[in-house]
Write a structure and sequence with these properties.
two-stranded antiparallel sheet; 9 helices; Rossmann fold; alpha/beta
């Protein structure tokens, strides 16, 4: 009897190990597919052409998040194109979740570090970083994400967003659903505002990226969820003054967003977008998400029509969904 129990136990253990190995194999194949199949610039942004002058958007592939930014911002004309001496800069990464970088739930800290450094190199007086985190333990999320260390080690300052007195009532003149809201003080008419979202899956919005990252600027997010969230996202975008949008798609969470379940659902894709047009950035990011989903067999390859807030923002004059109207430069570092 004991012998039979031991045999069954060993069979069960080997089955578990085999299952783990298969999952690890699938995960590694997915990572390889994402990393190798994605330089397909022939299909991504295929309707764009490079034009004379500085680009409106740079799409980079094949490096680390930090290295892609170094290359991309140089092609955009350098950070001095956007930050002038003596200006105060506010950066808004996604720091919503108590997850380390490998989950792809928050913006890559290496990217954030480089952005802060470039702002100071361009002559910024101060660089502030904040987010209205998805939990009251904001200081823990700032730490676990790696972003607090990235900002502070480069001379920037982390500012909390966890109490209502940090927000002030603002009118949204073009708002269709959102007529007014309480906005974090740092986001109200800053000298320079840099939006640094991470591209990932979202259970409600399908994809969260640049436009939806603005939800970390306001106090009452639940009101948006109850009152046509896609339109509220677009409405707020018509209010928020933004200098530059930098999309972190080094890792792309394809399932179980926005918090994430395991790093295996966030394959390394090695993409980044730098754009002066936030709507166009989300259009390009949607194409990247679909490409990574197809390459890995995870997630849903969403189309532009699936992400309702993007075209809603275009209707309000926030930006364009037609990438062919922009000067888009594509760079491969692979």
């Amino acid at each position: 009897m004991h012998f039979c129990v031991k045999i069954l136990y060993l069979v069960k253990i080997h089955t578990i190990i085999d299952h783990m190995k298969r999952r690890e194999f699938v995960y590694k194949v997915a990572l390889g597919a994402a990393a190798s199949a994605l330089p397909a610039g022939k299909t991504l942004f295929a309707d764009t052409k490079e034009k004379a002058g500085l680009p409106d958007m740079v799409a980079i592939h094949g490096g680390t998040a930090a290295d892609m930014f170094e290359k991309g911002i140089a092609e955009m004309g350098g950070m001095s194109r956007f930050v002038k001496k003596g200006q105060t800069v506010v950066i808004k990464p996604n720091i919503g979740w108590d997850r380390p970088p490998e989950y792809g739930a928050n913006t890559d800290p290496g990217l954030v570090a480089k952005i802060v450094k470039h702002c100071f190199d361009a002559g910024a007086k101060e660089v502030f970083c904040f987010d209205h985190t998805c939990g009251n333990d904001w200081d823990n999320r700032y730490k676990v994400s790696g972003i607090a260390a990235a900002v502070e080690s480069n001379g920037g300052k982390m500012v909390p967003g966890n109490t209502e007195n940090m927000y002030e009532p603002q009118i949204v003149p073009k708002g269709v659903s959102l007529k007014d809201c309480k906005v974090h003080k740092l986001a109200i008419n800053p000298d320079v505002f840099i939006n640094i979202p991470v591209l990932k899956h979202h259970g409600g919005a399908k994809i969260t990226c640049a436009l939806k990252n603005y939800m970390g600027c306001i106090w009452d997010r639940q009101w948006w969820h109850r009152n046509n969230m896609p339109q509220c996202i677009a409405d707020y975008a018509s209010y928020q003054k933004t200098t530059l949008t930098i999309v972190d798609a080094y890792r792309v969470m394809l399932e179980h967003g926005p918090r994430g379940k395991s790093p295996e659902f966030s394959p390394i894709a090695k993409y980044q977008l730098i754009s002066t047009d936030i709507v166009a950035a989300d259009v390009a990011a949607t194409q990247i998400f679909a490409s990574v989903a197809k390459a890995t067999g995870m997630g849903v390859p969403y189309k532009l029509d699936d992400i309702k807030y993007i075209e809603a923002a275009e209707k309000l004059g926030v930006g364009t969904t037609d990438l062919s109207k922009l000067n888009v430069k594509r760079i491969s570092m692979a």
